[in-house]
Design brief:
This protein has about 250 residues and is α+β, with helices and mostly antiparallel strands. It has 2 domains: about 100 residues, Alpha-Beta Plaits (2-Layer Sandwich), CATH 3.30.70; about 130 residues, Alpha-Beta Plaits (2-Layer Sandwich). The chain has 5 helices and 9 strands; from the N terminus they run βαββαβββαββααβ. Strands 1, 2, 3, 4, 5, 6, 7, 8 and 9 form a 9-stranded mixed β-sheet that branches.
């Protein structure tokens, strides 16, 4: 009899060609499947909460998989799994979940952060984007509040994707700055391909005075990717949280 599990993990995406398995390239999914298959001595296939692109990081990510041989009774199992993983990955926790639990489709929200640095910093070159102009965070936050007036974000979606709708419900969109570090935090029920990077690129145009708030609204309303700004580089983007209903977990008393 098989049991379904959730794995909570993190990874630095710099040296991975994204999440999904692909020929002749190292992916997060491939590394995790190889480690699990080696330990359990059965072929393991994992399904992730999403498909991060090449260079994108995750400080929190969730996958599910099924196994008929795995036992979590051994106290060092997580440590053992980590010893088989790429140095740019770490597993935090493994939990039993219901048979129908799905890491992608059961998620009720996701949170991303995009990191910029106004100062060239060799220690964050792979995890933040060097942006040498100080943008106006006040007007950028005003632009972020505009997002709550809309649900259709076609203007910020990668073209020719296989999704049935481009509607997303925004829960949070906020810019903060600490010293030279600027962070955009955005939370929604779902995200479109390339959406966060396109949002950041377009809101930055507001922040440097290239477009105003009315123009930003018109970009959203046009529902045309070519109307929005350029996508910012992948290496500043982090998936930071994925939320699930409590009902998917099997809790022991």
């Amino acid at each position: 009899m098989t049991q379904r599990y959730f794995i909570e993990l993190a990874y630095k995406g710099t040296h991975f060609h994204g999440w999904q398995v692909q020929p002749n390239a190292v992916s997060v999914q491939e590394c995790l499947e190889k480690a699990l298959s080696t330990i359990t001595r059965e072929p393991i296939s994992v399904t992730g909460a999403g498909r991060t692109d090449t260079g994108v990081h995750a400080s929190y990510f969730v996958v599910h998989f099924d196994s008929g041989k795995l036992t979590l009774d051994h106290p060092d199992f997580t440590h053992k799994l980590n010893s088989f993983l790429n140095k740019d990955m770490v597993v935090f926790n493994i939990s039993k979940v219901t048979p129908e639990a799905h890491a992608r489709f059961d998620a009720i929200s996701r949170t991303y952060q995009y990191h910029l640095n106004l100062r060239k910093d060799p220690f964050s070159l792979e995890t933040s984007w060097y942006f040498f102009n100080q943008p106006n965070l006040e007007i950028m936050n005003e632009a972020s509040w505009v997002l709550f007036d809309y649900i259709d974000f076609t203007s910020f979606s990668k073209l020719h994707t296989d999704v049935k709708t481009n509607n997303c419900k925004m829960y949070r969109a906020e810019w903060t700055q600490t010293g030279s570090a600027i962070v955009f935090t955005v939370k929604a029920d779902r995200f479109l391909r390339n959406m966060v990077r396109a949002l950041v690129g377009t809101i930055l145009e507001v922040g440097i005075g290239k477009i105003d708030l009315n123009q930003f609204r018109k970009i959203i309303e046009q529902k045309d990717r070519s109307a929005a700004g350029l996508s910012v580089p992948a290496h500043g983007l982090f998936l930071t949280d994925v939320e699930y209903p409590e009902s998917v977990f099997i809790r022991t008393v």
